[in-house]
Design goal:
single chain, about 90 residues, little secondary structure, three-stranded antiparallel beta sheet, 1 helix, about 10% helix
């Protein structure tokens, strides 16, 4: 073999875990996977992987991984907000 020959071993990304993302455009949180093409299985498509933000349809390149867990986000979003009749 020539001395400049390089052999690249590609790792399959098809079974990667879900993560929590925050959209950099609308700042909504969503959980799942960003659609990426696997170099080992380039023709495989996972229909539930996100191609864009599910709220504003912004590009996934604007999404960043969140520091919050999904349970923390659900707790914030499900919290009861005060109304005008509440006394403080």
């Amino acid at each position: 073999m020539p001395s400049d020959y390089k052999y690249d071993v590609h790792k399959c990304i098809c079974d990667r875990p879900q993560k929590v993302f925050e959209c950099g455009h609308c700042h909504h949180y969503f959980r799942g996977r960003i659609r990426l093409q696997c170099k080992v299985h380039p023709n495989d498509v996972f229909l539930m992987d996100f191609q864009s933000c599910p709220y504003c349809f912004g590009a996934t390149k604007l999404a960043k991984e969140s520091q919050l867990t999904w349970s923390q986000i659900r707790r914030m979003e499900d919290a009861k907000l005060p109304n005008d009749s509440d006394d403080f």
